[in-house]
Amino acid sequence: MISAGLLLYSLTFKENQKVQSDSGAEKKLLVELFTCKGAKVKQSGKFILDAKELFHTNELKFKVRFNKLMNELLIVSYENTDYRISSYDRNISDNTVELTLEKINK
């Protein structure tokens, strides 16, 4: 169980949805689904070698209360930066989810 005092960080969960314009053209938009508070578990960074280039990836870990709309395909926005969910670990006994987020490079 997460105590309410540890839920200090605001996380916004978004989903890619197809939206059709009046002319019939379809485009994908990030649509906000819900916002929740989370407790930061750990922050780390690592260097990855990809195509002979060195990239620094930022990983964040949060523990949040479970929401039935939550899944591993959503985009999470934290401090105006978008992250994808690289690990989704639900703990049914205390109704929490531990999320590992990886920064999306734009």
Question: Keywords for this structure?
Answer:
single chain; globular; mainly beta; 106 residues; six-stranded antiparallel barrel
Topology readout:
Layout: E1 9-20, E2 26-50, E3 53-65, E4 75-78, E5 81-91, E6 96-103
Antiparallel strand pairs: 1-2, 1-4, 2-3, 3-6, 4-5, 5-6
Can you characterise this structure?
It is a single chain. The protein is mainly β and 106 residues long. Helix content is 0%, strand content 69%. It has strands spanning 9-20, 26-50, 53-65, 75-78, 81-91, 96-103. It has a six-stranded antiparallel beta barrel. Strand 1 and strand 2 (26-50) form a beta hairpin.
Distance between the termini: 35 Å
Number of helices: 0
Reported by name, the CATH topology is Thrombin, subunit H
CATH superfamily: Bacteriophage SPP1 head-tail adaptor protein
Tertiary shape: globular
Mean pLDDT reading: 85
The CATH class is Mainly Beta
Q: Can you describe this structure in just a few lines?
A:
The chain has 106 residues and is mainly beta.
